[in-house]
Amino acid sequence: MNSISSTSLSKRAVRKCRHVSSLISSTSFRRLGIYQYTCFSSEMNSFIISSTKCCPFCSYTSLHSTNIRNHLVIHTGEKPYICHICKKSFTLKGNLKTHLRLHSGEQPYECRICGRKFTQLVHLRRHEMCKHS
Questions:
Q1: Which residue ranges does UniProt annotate as crossing the membrane (predicted)?
Q2: pTM for this entry
């Protein structure tokens, strides 16, 4: 295990990933008092280094630091993106962009079969599966 404990790096209580062997501080997380883990796993007696990043608060893992950063707002409660029309706040910029379509009436996703339009791609996909499969 790593000789540097998580408590010596941060006063915030941090749970280690079950695969953690090394602790790497990240500038983007340091400002939140959060540290990024690099996970390791061993299979068949060979040590395989994976680049999986782990949330320090739960068991969520991802190969991309951006996904971890976006996930962390679940724990921090931060909602920096605010709708200028109704003042609703969002954790991700993309969620605000999607929300603004409700105010503008924009429906960029159109069904190729019946022509019905949708504000979100997921709604179009659900429509296609339910109505045209």
A1: none
A2: 0.54
Name the β-bridge partners of 40: 49
Find tokens 């029309």 and name the residue. Answer: 85
Q: To which residue do tokens 């008092």 refer?
A: 33
Q: Is 71 exposed, middle or buried (CB count within 10 Å of its CB: 0-12, 13-18, 19+)?
A: middle
pLDDT in tens, 36-68: 444 444 443 333 344 578 888 888 888 888 888
Residue 94 and residue 121: Cα distance in Å, rounded? 13
Got the DSSP string for 39-101?
EEEEETTEEEEEEEEE-SSSS-EES-HHHHHHHHHHHH----EE-TTT--EESSHHHHHHHHH
Answer whether 6's CB lies under 8 Å from 16's CB.
Answer: yes
Over the stretch 11-23, which tens digit does the pLDDT of each residue have? 333 344 443 333 3
User: End-to-end CA distance of the chain, in Å?
Assistant: 52
